[in-house]
TrEMBL record:
This is Membrane frizzled-related protein. It is found in: Cell membrane. The keyword Ligase does not apply. PANTHER family: MEMBRANE FRIZZLED-RELATED PROTEIN (PTHR24251:SF30), OVOCHYMASE-RELATED (PTHR24251). It is a single-pass membrane protein. The gene is MFRP. Residues 94-205, 253-366 form the CUB domain. It comes from Nothobranchius pienaari. InterPro entries: CUB_dom (IPR000859), Frizzled_dom (IPR020067), Frizzled_dom_sf (IPR036790), LDL_receptor-like_sf (IPR036055), LDrepeatLR_classA_rpt (IPR002172), Sperma_CUB_dom_sf (IPR035914).
Length: 541
């Protein structure tokens, strides 16, 4: 089942991405609950202690001589101290105080699996004016960002602020150059899945001797970035140096294309494309024509939300203006795409990791004719196994008379007397969920094809567990995004509308400060939503 409206080609991707949105909501709820916990564990002390209290807390940790019993389970020897102490057999010692100028530490049992319910805290202290530099040589910790389950955290306190960074997953993070002579490192695991943990080394460095590894990039006076973060179109450095001189980094590809037909392909196709590519094709045809783009071969790195290697197609003369027709990755050939005017932009991005055979595509100019006083495309512009909507967009023939509107004008469901599917007649209904009152619309429609929610009662039950979000300062923009997904706006033309990209971007911008307080990063890719202000294309709750 597919939704009516823009972004149809991203239907499967949106469903996967919504799962990340739910994780984000749960993370915010947990964050709010965590703020109510006071003084119950050493973790609370290490993550909430103000700068003047750091030395006091460190003194207490050192008096634990010199390890901290923090983990329940079997006995695990500490990587910090050879000293022994008498403890109940039900407790595990890990963490401690590290005062040497060079040292190492690791998760319990490393390189074996760490135990569940672990809480380890290391205090690394070097003499001023030296600063602490940490390199994590291996990492295998459960969970993707924002690291809600198991995580390795690094906290430093300076005169200006407290900085907390969390790591998880299976990719070792870049070098951490702190701005403090005292750093707290926390390792936390939950009661379920475990991994091989981590191994890390630290050393004391002078401020002028901050460094990164050979493959990393340093900016902002000591911040290290992995190669995948370079020239990815998203500045990570305050001075944006990671996005500078990118034309030298990428192999020449893309360009300006003008004419009634043509072709484009990834570099080296059908051989594997090089790493770190950024190719942009600007396609233009004569006025009075639109552009139909057809992919012939397609094989990129597979990933749910297409963040690493992907192709984007924009309905405009550049990638910044106009709506996004689709972002694609994996091995499924994208559908044919038709522009609304005489310009189209195709962008190909590849990161430092996996490379595949890439893609090839052709385009053709299609003459626009007036049909019944409106704009349409002459028949015969689609493939033999496709049909054309009044707007000129091409869809697979099996999508005709399937009970769901794919064409904006509903042409695919017209004259379907022999159809085995009843026409889609889902009616609009008033929104009754308390959490989603006060939106710019008050009508929704079910079933919800994105989240597979049957009716509004089921949506209300799911949203009930997220009522705690109503206490957040940034609840209003977050409400517009969450409710736009759970209770999408009912369109008078049939079907429902996705939230516009601006709704997601606003929530990300206004909630980022609250997320940063708990070391969470925004986990939803706003680029999956249509970039438009047309009320017929998307919704602005």
């Amino acid at each position: 089942m597919r939704l009516w409206g823009p972004g149809r080609g991203l239907g499967v991707v949106v469903i996967s991405a919504v799962a990340l949105l739910l994780v984000a909501a749960l993370g915010l709820a947990l964050a709010l609950i965590l703020t109510q916990i006071r003084g119950q564990t050493l973790e609370d002390q290490s993550l909430t202690t103000a700068a003047p209290d750091l030395q006091s807390a460190e003194h207490k940790a050192s008096q634990m001589s010199p390890t901290v019993p923090l983990v329940r389970g079997q006995m695990v020897s500490s990587t910090v101290s050879p000293h022994s102490a008498t403890t109940p057999p039900s407790e595990t010692r890990c963490g401690g105080v590290l005062n040497d100028s060079v040292g190492s530490f690791s998760s319990p049992n490393h390189p074996g699996s760490y135990p569940p319910n672990s809480l380890c805290v290391w205090v690394i202290r070097v003499p001023a004016p030296y600063l602490v530099q940490i390199r994590v040589s291996s990492l295998a910790v459960e969970g993707p960002s924002p690291c809600l389950f198991d995580w390795l955290g690094v906290q430093e306190q300076t005169e200006q602020s407290t900085v907390v960074t969390r790591f998880c997953g299976n990719i070792a993070p870049p070098t951490v150059n702190s701005n403090s002579s005292t750093v707290w490192v926390t390792f936390r695991s939950d009661a379920s899945i475990t991994g091989n943990g981590f191994a890390a080394q630290y050393r004391a460095v002078l401020p002028r001797h901050k460094s990164c590894t050979r493959e990393e990039f340093m900016c902002d006076g000591g911040r290290c970035l992995l190669p995948v973060s370079m020239c990815d179109g998203h500045p990570n450095c305050n001075d944006q140096q990671d996005e500078a001189n990118c034309s030298r980094k990428h192999k020449e590809c893309g360009g300006q294309t003008f004419g009634p037909y043509g072709s484009l392909a990834s570099p080296n196709h059908p051989k594997p494309y090089p790493h770190q590519q950024l190719c942009t094709w600007h396609i233009s045809v004569d006025k009075g024509h639109v552009i139909t783009l057809s992919f012939r071969n397609f094989s990129l790195e597979t990933q749910d939300v297409c963040e690493f290697d992907y192709v984007e197609v924009h309905d405009s003369s550049n990638a910044e203006a106009g709506r996004l027709l689709g972002r694609f990755c994996g091995t499924t050939i994208p559908p044919d795409l038709t522009s609304s005017g005489s310009h189209m932009t195709v962008v190909f991005v590849a990161d430092e990791g996996v490379a595949d055979s890439g893609f090839s595509a052709t385009y053709q100019a299609v003459f626009v004719t007036d049909i019944l006083g409106g704009c349409g495309v002459s028949k015969g512009t689609c493939e033999p196994d496709q049909f054309a909507c009044g707007s000129g967009e091409c869809f697979q023939q099996q999508w005709q008379c399937d009970g769901w509107n794919d064409c904006p004008d509903g042409a695919d469901e017209t004259g379907c007397s022999n159809s085995t599917y009843p026409p889609f007649t889902s009616s609009c209904e008033i929104i009754e969920v308390e959490m989603c009152q006060g939106l710019s619309y008050n009508l929704t429609s079910f079933p919800n094809i994105w989240l597979s929610i049957v009716d509004q009662r089921e949506a209300a039950t799911l949203l009930q567990q997220y009522r705690v979000l109503m206490e957040l300062v940034c609840f209003r923009p977050l409400q517009r995004l969450v409710c736009g997904m759970f209770l999408p706006q009912c369109s008078p033309h049939g079907g429902v509308l996705q939230p516009c990209r601006s709704v997601c971007s606003s929530a990300e911008q206004q909630c980022s400060q609250a997320l940063d307080l708990f070391s969470f990063s925004w986990p939803f890719n706003c680029h999956l939503l249509p970039d438009s202000q047309d009320p017929l294309e998307c919704s602005e709750p």
